[in-house]
Amino acid sequence: MDQDAKKTALWKTLPFVLFALGGLGVVITTGLRHPFDPTLEGTARYGHNGEGALTSALVMMFVEILFVTLALRPWSLGKETWIRAILVPLVMAPYAAFLFLLVMHTGSVFLFHALWFFLLEAALALLALGLGGAALWGWMQRRQGAG
Questions:
Q1: 3-state class of 38 per DSSP?
Q2: Is the dihedral of CA 33, 110, 60, 126 positive or negative?
Q3: Is 36 strand, coil or helix?
Q4: What sign results for the dihedral spanned by CA atoms 111, 114, 116, 118?
Q5: What is the phi/psi pair of residue 79, to 5°?
Q6: Is 1 helix (H, G, I), strand (E, B) or coil?
Q7: What is the distance between the alpha carbons of residues 145 and 24, in angstroms, rounded to a whole number?
Q8: Residue 88: partners with Cβ closer than 8 Å, 6 or more residues away
Q9: Backbone phi, then psi, for 94, in 5-degree steps?
Q10: Residue 73 DSSP class
Q11: pLDDT tens string 47-62
Q12: pTM, whole model, 2 decimals?
């Protein structure tokens, strides 16, 4: 891979990496600011972080980031990327519904994790719209040039 291709791959991957690091930073900060409180019992625990919530959320985020990275391959954004950008949010939609139910009575760690995940889904949908629109525009231009 030549130097220009490496730079291009870095610039294509950088927004995804920054988004992932930002989400991790918010979840870690929230977990450290609102740790597990063992003195709370019963319904008083609603809305508070449970024991091991930060670790669980970080593991979930790592798996989600890994899945999206391997499925989307942001370093190789090309002509067919819009198809992957459509499929990834669709495949992850049932998981997003499960995550929505999961945050109902949990603390801020899972809440911010879910918000980050929904932003990721929205960003992928916008990416799909943008890349799909660009692909459609290119197809229309080629068709007009051929006709």
A1: coil
A2: negative
A3: coil
A4: negative
A5: -65, -35
A6: coil
A7: 47
A8: 68, 71, 72, 124
A9: -65, -35
A10: -
A11: 788 888 899 999 999 9
A12: 0.79
Residue 43 identity (one-letter amino acid): T
CA distance 57 to 20: 13
Say if CB 114 and CB 57 are below 8 A apart.
Answer: no
Find, among 32, 95, 28, 100, the residue nearest to 58 by Cα.
28
Q: Write the Ramachandran bin of 62: left for phi over 0, alpha for psi from -120 to 50, otherwise beta.
A: alpha
Q: How far is CA 27 from CA 70, 76, 90, 116, in A?
A: 22, 29, 24, 9
Work out the burial of residue 30: count CB atoms within 10 Å of its CB; fewer than 13 is exposed, 13-18 middle, 19 or more buried. Answer: buried
64 and 106 in contact (C-beta within 8 Å)? no
Six token digits for residue 24: 């991790």
Task: Extract the tokens encoding 48.
Answer: 């508070």
Tokens found for residue 91? 């495949």
Say which residue the tokens 């499960």 belong to. Answer: 98
Q: Please answer whether residues 64 and 99 qualify as being in contact, where contact means their C-beta atoms are separated by less than 8 angstroms.
A: no
Query: 83-96 pLDDT, tens per residue?
Result: 888 888 899 999 99
Instruction: Show the tokens assigned to 26.
Output: 């918010």
109: amino acid identity, one letter: V
The residues, ordered by sequence, that sit 6+ positions from 107 with a Cβ below 8 Å of its Cβ are 34, 47, 48, 49, 50, 53
